[in-house]
Amino acid sequence: MTASVCEQLAEELRAIRGRSGLSLAALASRTPYSKSSWERYLNGRKPAPRQAVAALCGVTGEPSGRLLALWELADAEWSGRARPAPAPGPTAPPGTGRDAAPRAGRHRWSVAVTVLVVGAVAAGLGLPALFGEKPEGGARGVEEPLVRNPGCRADACEGHNAVTMGCGGAGMITTLATHTASDGRRLELRHAELCHAVWVRATGLTQGDQVELTLPTGRAQQVVAEESGAPGGYLATPMAAGNSDTDTRICLNRPGSSPECFPG
C-alpha cells in the first residue's frame, strides 16, 4: 500500500465531479457536506468519509461499488492499518512437524488475499464482486442513504441537464422505453419522478448525430454529438417537463440518412 491510493481516490472523485458539471456549491446543496468540505475532499487535503463518496455517486448517477472498494483501501492507509508491521525481535527457530505447514499456509493465504484485493480495484472491480457477492441489493450492515434533493421540478427543469440539476442520481431514474436503431445506436427514454421530467440518453453516437425528444405540446429538446465516442459512452438531451405517461417521440437524425423515429 502506498500514498498513491489516497491520491487515486481523490483523483477519481474529482473526475466524477468534473463529468457531472456540478459546482462545489451545487454539491453542497444536494448533499450533507459543505462547499469547503467538498473542496478539501476533492483536493485530497482531508480524507473523504465513506458516506461522502456514496453521496457523490448518488447525485451524479455513478456506480458506487468500485469507488467504495477504493475508499476501503484508502481508509486503511489513512488509519495506519496498511503500514508495514515493525521488524520482529528474536524468535524461536521455525516450527517443524504438523504446526509449521498450517502457519505457512495461512501466511500464503494472507498474501494472496492482499494481492487479489489490490488487483481487483486496479481492474475496476469492487470488493463484493471479488468475493462473489452481489454488488447491489445484498444484505449489508449499514445501508447508504440515497441522496434525493433535486434542483428543479416540472417546468423549472425544462432545458436543463438531468445530472447537473440532481435529477439523474442513483435510484431516481426509470427507463420508460429502449429503442435500438438500425445501425446499433441505442436510445433510452428516461424519467425522474421527483423532478417530473423526461429526457433521452443515447449511446453509440458518431460525430454529427442528432437526437431529438418531442412532446405533444410541440416542445423539443435535442443533443448533437460533436465527436464520435461521447465521454462516458453516452450523450443525453436536456430535460423536458413530463411524467411516465407523457406521449413522446424520439428521433435519431444522422448525416446523409433519413431520420429514424420511435414512439416514447
Short recap of the structure:
This protein is α+β, with helices and mostly antiparallel strands and 264 residues long.
Question: What do these coordinates show?
Answer:
It holds the Pfam family HTH_31. Residues 80-103 are annotated as: Disordered. Residues 94-103 have a biased composition (Low complexity). α1 (4-20) packs parallel to α4 (50-60) and α2 packs across α3. This protein has helices at residues 4-20, 24-30, 35-43, 50-60, 65-79, 100-122, 127-130; strands at 173-180, 186-192, 197-203, 210-214, 220-224, 234-236, 240-241, 249-253, 260-263. The chain is an alpha+beta fold and 264 residues long. It contains seven helices and nine strands. The strands form two sheets. Strands 1, 2, 3, 6 and 7 form a five-stranded antiparallel β-sheet that branches. It has a four-stranded antiparallel β-sheet with strand order 5-4-8-9, with no helix packed on it. It is elongated, with a radius of gyration of 24 Å. The longest helix is centred in the middle third of the chain and has 23 residues, at 100-122. The chain folds into two domains: 4-84 and 121-130, lambda repressor-like DNA-binding domains (434 Repressor (Amino-terminal Domain), Orthogonal Bundle), CATH 1.10.260; 154-263, Sandwich (Immunoglobulin-like).
